[in-house]
Amino acid sequence: MSVKPVLAKLIDTSTCIGCKACEVACQEWNDQEFTISGGLGGDYQTQPDVTHNFWNLIKFNEESHDDQMSWLMAKYQCMHCADPGCLKACPAPGAIVVLDNGIVDFNQDNCIGCGYCITGCPFDIPRLNPQTNKVYKCTLCSDRTEVGLEPACIKACPTSCLTFGTRSELLQKAKDRSQELQDDGIKTAGVYNPIGVGGTNVMYVLAHADRPEAYGLPKDPKIPWAVWFWKSPLKWLGNLILIGGILGTFVHYLRYGPKNYQDEND
Amino acid sequence: MTERRIERFSFTERIMHWLAALSFLYAALTGLALWSHRLYWLAAVFGGGETVRGWHPWGGIVFTLTIGYMFRNWARQMKLDREDLQWLRRAHRYAIHDDKDLPEANKFNAGQKMLFWVQSVATILLLFSGTVLWWPHSMSQNLRLLAILIHPISAILSIGAIIVHIYMGTAAVPGAFRGMIQGWVRPEWASSHHPKWFREISKR
């Protein structure tokens, strides 16, 4: 069995111009009807959040300090975690799969619409379509990558802020770029590849890597403690109680038999 | 022979009990299907994962209603008194059929009372956490995280208690099952298992 290299996407926020070509390409390729949800709040951001039919959103975050205004743009989508919380929480076998190229894909045929993946995801990405009762998110264009094409968002990006390749190659590229930014005087530049979820196959170069929250990215994402507790110790304890209960009552009957009363012959 | 029959549970009580049993069985088995991938085959038995996800909550609602009836019907008789606590401390002796030093049981012994309270508490917890899990997208993340812990914990408690209950009601205490199916027991059964109750109804 040949081991396929893990594929990844790198988002260099320092060269993002907020053109939204990636958003359009995503909608186009995935044949999504565009319905504005949440309204246009006099804002550059297309809509407040990702939705079941809008998987790729550039978040526009404004910041001002000392009379300086900065505009932090970051494309937001599924991070394709190495240790995906959605998968850990999912009760339906085959509904969430990790492809051998590292893509975390949802297979709607097997999805039962319980929404546990939404609870398991530290990035708050999966969204339920109330019509189909299935959950959707970015597929990293698994239908394109399997035939050797790059994801639609990458293809559409005019500034090469988005790049696609193997994980090891892009991680190096991200480090080089961060170094470059640091050399240019942006001391806080760095890579966002959160280790709490085993690293992500969607990585960022951030000018303010010390505070990813400013970009709308969680600081130190981890699979929620409750999800881990539920799927590890609680599951074993529960199984022990249930199997122990069934076996225990059976053994009790063999050892002590029924509780009799005087009139046994009626 | 009718005088040899003592009514144990009324027709309504039996209907409600078996409605509870069926809805519990359905909710427990469909719940277990989603509890472990190894038990997911249970989902196929009940019409597939989507069907199970859609109907499991309704099984829970029916069960909750039957528990509500039982609560109204029996709560007063289920109060634990000092003798019950004594009984519970000696429950291991009851388990090995060494009943000499056990306080005499009324209509329900202390073990049955415990089942009643465990199910009452578990049902309330299951109802609230289940509501969160039913509509996860309308709930806050903290509520959902709480619910994915509370729901299985209370379910394990509830199923664990039911395993003992089913064993006691069928194999372990001959005569008990007829009390819940046909509704009556023999006087000897009543005086042996529930002497206080037997004396009380004999006075009538």
Walk me through the structure.
The complex is a heterodimer of chains A (266) and B (204). Chain A has 266 residues and is an alpha+beta fold. Chain A has one domain (7-221): Alpha-Beta Plaits, CATH 3.30.70. Chain A has eight helices and ten strands. In chain A, helix 7 (225-231) packs parallel to helix 8 (233-256). In chain B, helix 9 (187-193) crosses helix 10 (195-203). Chain B has one domain (2-203): Up-down Bundle (Fumarate Reductase Cytochrome B subunit), CATH 1.20.950. At the A-B interface, helix 3, helix 7 and helix 8 of A face helix 1, helix 3, helix 7 and helix 9 of B.
Please describe the topology of this protein.
The complex is a heterodimer of chains A (266) and B (204).
Chain A: E1 7-12, H1 21-29, E2 57-65, E3 68-76, H2 85-89, E4 96-98, E5 104-106, H3 116-120, E6 127-129, E7 134-136, H4 142-145, H5 152-156, E8 162-166, H6 167-183, E9 190-192, E10 202-206, H7 225-231, H8 233-256
Parallel strand pairs in A: 1-10
Antiparallel strand pairs in A: 1-8, 2-3, 4-5, 6-7, 9-10
Chain B: E1 6-7, H1 11-35, H2 41-45, H3 49-74, H4 82-89, H5 91-95, H6 110-134, H7 141-172, H8 176-181, E2 184-185, H9 187-193, H10 195-203
Antiparallel strand pairs in B: 1-2
Helix pairs in contact in B: 1-3, 3-6, 6-7, 9-10
